[in-house]
């Protein structure tokens, strides 16, 4: 099987690393890739958001499967032009990808499918925003309705800050979705769908804020871990039956079947499980941790989804050890990241047992030196016999890497490892972090 993976980041590096372990995958190409991906497979420097460029490359390479990593190519209709040309594509159509591209559309689908989520109002101007903010009260949750690379959400106790974010979105020609605040820990669940059948991967938790203790502005994600031993028993079944399958069925009923990954972002609140957001692709950085544990051949799984042959009874095979991913970001991220800084120590980190480094924003100069090329630069991923050990190994790897001005959180998975995550309304045995 020949596979083409579209995207430049850590998620795509994780996908390619998993594909190369699949005995049925004989050849992998990436476009555009990054420095780490280029060490593994051929890369092609095209604009992956341009349907015509992607079609030209696919026509040249004739892959058996195209995997679309990021959200932007999906929103641009890349999957549609490839499917129309006869290629097997893992990634939803432009219309189905509105589940991520438009938060207002996602709310409509959830309402039609009776999916539990936060109460919300769409605001098109300042007056509507003020009314919505006052309806829900603090903490205020304001979301840019369009794609914002994980950084279009403001959660604040300050009404002026919330209103200012809304006005920034209006000034850019957009709208906002203002929601009630959802308490409780957040969970990410990836659901593989062929448009009618679905299979869940294992839940993960990511960390959106730039600084420790969930302080500072939102980023695309500063780390993740899996599994979640503190999550209530039966959570995955609940999410599949109440959220994922009804959503997939509603999309099919509308004539826009969802083929790809439905990323279900959840809050485990005092009023029950609620959807925070849908994404239309693998989440980043959760993918880096989740795929580190997946033993089921990834290429065969995604090809089955792309061709409508997913087996809903398939039992996925997992490494029982926890995985932790810690992201190294560049100076000034998430505002205006500084790029072009030298990165050292990646080879040393990769030599540690059960540790691997996944590149995101990296490139090589003419002298083959590794440089930063984006906001999130790389992730150190580690497996451990328990979450404490996985954290230790991940941070041991991070300590070997040098990047001037680089920043990373030191508390990824710390509360879970210490058994300090509480699920509102859950029994003590389901919220203390112990393995049940």
Helix proportion: 25-40%
Would you report the number of β strands? 23
Whole-number radius of gyration?
Answer: 21 Å
Nearest-integer average pLDDT: 93
Could you name the ranges where pLDDT drops below 50 across 5 or more consecutive residues? 428-436
In short:
Helices cover 31% and strands 25% of the residues.
Topology overview:
Blueprint: E1 2-7, H1 10-19, E2 27-32, H2 35-38, H3 51-61, E3 65-68, H4 71-75, H5 78-84, E4 89-90, H6 98-101, H7 103-112, E5 120-123, H8 126-136, E6 140-144, E7 153-156, H9 159-171, E8 176-179, E9 186-194, E10 198-200, E11 205-206, E12 209-211, E13 215-218, E14 223-226, H10 235-253, E15 259-269, E16 272-279, H11 286-293, H12 298-306, E17 323-329, E18 343-344, H13 346-350, E19 355-359, E20 362-364, E21 370-372, E22 376-383, H14 387-399, E23 402-403, H15 414-417
Parallel strand pairs: 1-2, 1-3, 3-4
Antiparallel strand pairs: 5-8, 6-7, 6-8, 9-10, 9-15, 11-14, 12-13, 14-17, 15-16, 17-22, 18-23, 19-22, 20-21
Helix pairs in contact: 1-11, 3-5, 8-9
């Amino acid at each position: 099987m020949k596979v083409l993976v579209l995207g430049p980041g850590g998620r795509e590096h994780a996908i390619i690393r998993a594909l190369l372990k699949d005995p049925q995958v004989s050849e992998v190409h990436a476009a555009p890739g990054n420095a780490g991906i280029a060490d593994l497979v051929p890369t092609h420097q095209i604009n992956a958001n341009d349907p015509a460029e992607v079609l030209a490359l696919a026509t040249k390479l004739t892959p058996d499967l195209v995997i679309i990593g990021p959200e932007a190519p999906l929103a641009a209709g890349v999957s549609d032009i490839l499917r129309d040309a006869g290629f097997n594509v893992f990634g939803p159509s432009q219309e189905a990808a509105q589940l991520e591209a438009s938060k207002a559309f996602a709310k409509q689908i959830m309402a039609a499918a009776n999916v539990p989520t936060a109460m919300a109002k769409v605001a098109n101007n300042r007056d509507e925003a003020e009314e919505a903010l006052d309806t829900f009260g603090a903490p205020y949750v304001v979301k840019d309705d369009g794609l914002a690379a994980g950084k279009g959400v403001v959660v604040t106790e300050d009404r002026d800050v919330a209103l200012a974010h809304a006005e920034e979105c209006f000034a850019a020609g957009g709208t906002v979705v203002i929601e009630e605040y959802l308490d409780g820990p957040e969970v990410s669940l990836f659901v593989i769908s062929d448009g009618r059948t679905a299979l869940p991967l294992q839940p993960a938790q990511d960390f959106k804020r730039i600084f420790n203790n969930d302080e500072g502005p939102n980023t695309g994600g500063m780390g993740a871990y899996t599994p979640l031993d503190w999550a209530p028993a039966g959570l995955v079944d609940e999410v599949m039956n109440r959220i994922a399958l009804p959503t997939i069925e509603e999309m099919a009923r509308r004539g826009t079947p969802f083929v790809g990954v439905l990323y279900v972002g959840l809050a485990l609140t005092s009023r029950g499980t609620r959807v925070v957001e849908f994404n239309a692709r693998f989440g980043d950085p959760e993918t880096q941790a989740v795929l580190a544990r997946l033993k089921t051949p990834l290429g065969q799984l995604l090809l089955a989804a792309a061709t409508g042959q997913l087996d809903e009874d398939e039992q996925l095979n997992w490494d029982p050890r926890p995985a932790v991913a810690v992201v190294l970001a560049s100076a000034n991220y998430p505002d205006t990241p500084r790029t072009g800084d030298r990165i050292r120590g990646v080879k040393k980190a990769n030599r540690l047992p059960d540790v691997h480094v996944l590149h995101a924003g990296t490139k090589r100069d003419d002298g083959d030196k590794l440089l930063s090329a984006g906001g999130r630069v790389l992730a150190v991923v580690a497996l451990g016999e328990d979450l404490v050990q996985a954290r230790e190994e991940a941070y041991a790897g991070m300590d070997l890497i040098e990047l001037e001005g680089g920043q990373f959180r030191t508390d990824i998975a710390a509360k879970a490892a210490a058994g300090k995550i509480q699920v509102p309304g859950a029994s003590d045995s389901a919220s203390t972090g112990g393995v049940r």
